[in-house]
Amino acid sequence: MAPIAGVLIFFSFDVVLLWTRSEAAADASFLALSFLALGFLLNVLGGIPYALQLSAGLAWIPLYINIASVLMMVPLLVSLVRLFGIAGAGLSFALLNLLGFAVAPVLTHRFVLRGEMRAWLVRDIAPFALPGSASNGPISSRRRKGSIIERSCVGNGLWTRNPAPSRVVKLSTIRSMPR
Question: For the residues 61-82, what does the mean pLDDT come to?
């Protein structure tokens, strides 16, 4: 799940462009897709502490987290959609899942896996979170031209590229050209 989410988070513009073949649609929706993919990734990662809480008989932890999420979702969703449009909806989903991912494991390690929190963060979370956070994100790669590999390398500082944007020629322009 993490590799798919990583592609959707960091290359959402390209994915929407490939899917819709519309640069306008990709421009309008790539941030929403990035935030939704991040929210789903955090939701999947939170599934393991959730299952552990239920198996330990601590059903009150997910109950309270879900009640808090329901109470926060509507005002957060409305305010972020007003501020950021469709990207605000994805952002609200990502923020709620981030909150759940931040709270549920802490409570799990407090009541079930005492003394394992630091090892879990260092061994299981940091090796995967740090490389992803160091790469180029959806905002910086939004309008760069070139291949996905090239943009990833440029965003990570592996090489520099001429800042002048490349010219995009539409298929209708090629068809109307004299032979």
Answer: 92
